[in-house]
Every structure is written in C-alpha cells, then in structure tokens.
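S.,

Sequence below, as promised.
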Amino acid sequence: MEHIKEIEWLSSNYLSENVRILDCRYKLGEPHYGKTLFQEAHIPGAVYFDLEEDLSGEIKVHGGRHPLPDIADFVQKLQNAGITNTTKVIAYDSGEGAFAARCWWMLKYLGHKKAFILNGGFEAWKNGGFEVTTQRTDYPSSEYHPVLQPDMAAAVEDVRMISDGEAEGRLIDSRVKDRYLGRFEPIDKVAGHIPGAVNYDWTEAFKNGSFPSKENHQKRWADINKDEPIIVYCGSGVTAAANILSLWTAGYKNAKLYTGSYSDWVSYEENSVETE
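The prediction came back faster than expected:
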C-alpha cells in the first residue's frame, strides 16, 4: 500500500543510509511512557519523536490540545535526525497507529513524498524476532526544505461553513461513539460533537494492530461521497490522522485534517454542539 511499509521490508532496509525510523510511541495521560519504552528497547537506528515535545506546539486559548508545532522547530528536529527531502521516513508506534499517523501526516504536510507507517508497529517488529536495541543513534545534521501543503489542513472557519450549511462538505468525527454522542467527555470542557458531523471511530482504521487492505478501507467509506469536501477531526488532531490515512488509502485524497479538532471547536463560546 502507498503509505504503509511491512516489517519484512524494513528488516531488509533499516540500515540503509537513506532510511530513517521515527519511534512515536506514546500514551495519553502518561507523558514519559513512550520515552521509557524507547530507552528500554527500540528498532536499531530509530530516533524518538515525542507527541507533546516534537509533534505538537504550545497550547494557547485556541488551537486545541495538540496544536501543530512551529514549522521551523519541526524542520530543525528532522534535520537533527539526518532527514533530507529524499529520505524514506518510517514512523511507528506500539501498533495502535494514531501516533505514527500523526507523524506521517506532519511529514506529508511538509510535502515529504517518502513518508510511511510501519504496519503493526514495534510489537509486530519485536514479535517477528527482529533486532532491538537500547543504543541511541546520532546522525550528522542535514538540510531539509519544507514545501507546505496548506490544502491538507482545515481551520475552524472552514468547519463552521460546513456545519452551518453555508458550504458543501462532510464533517467526520473520529472519536469513540460515546464521546461523539456526548454520553461522557473525559477531557474537553463540553460533551458532544460538531453539528452535522458523522461518526467513524478511528480505531476501525486498524485491526489488531495492523492496517487492513485497501479494499477494506474502500468498503469502510462507501457511504461517503468522494467528490465532496471532507474534514476529519477528533479530540485534538491526533487520532483523526489515522482516519486521514484510511481515507487516503481508499482514494479520498481531498480529506483534510481539522488540526485543532473538537478541543479547538469548544474553545469558542459561540460554537454550538450536538448530543444524542
């Protein structure tokens, strides 16, 4: 598949000079979880990219709980990892897919053509009997020149236009159904969903830690019109990236990420929400 690499491929290429591996393991609510796992064992040559420190920016009044990082800062981190515009970058997490997908989306947003997710993540690699290490790898600094793709991202104004019926399009809520329906809300200050949004739980993009076939994703999105604008959101713009990956794989290249997502939406008092 276009955006996925299998562990068999990586096992033959992970030592290549033009391949970089980004370890994106993380656990919401436990900020040191991923770093600890990385220190205990990781794929040789991998560099750790933290959701909070590397893949997100400073939290402000608006912009959501995981706003995009400053582009210059993110580019510097890529350069520190020895990544150039032609490097094949493979992101992995523990197998859930969302954190690796956030990194993959960020790279695509910068215009990086050779960005991939490791199917099955670290667990599949380890269970396959492949080499792991505790050794950190340092790379010579590189040059990286981003070519931003602004059409990949949606702002609150874009979402309002669709929600209010002033523009055509489909809003997709990627959270679990009970949060979408407003039955409970463990993080954000208001329960519910953006008016007009439909619910597609992001966890359905992965099955038992693996990314299903292209045909599986095409069936999943069969009720969504390919020709209409699509904006995808979740709580803070992280897990929605898994649905973007699923949509793109199914051929919905016009799917955009609402980067601030629901946590940005409810930061505006004038924005309404729906519940069941």
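The radius of gyration is 18 Å.

Coffee later?
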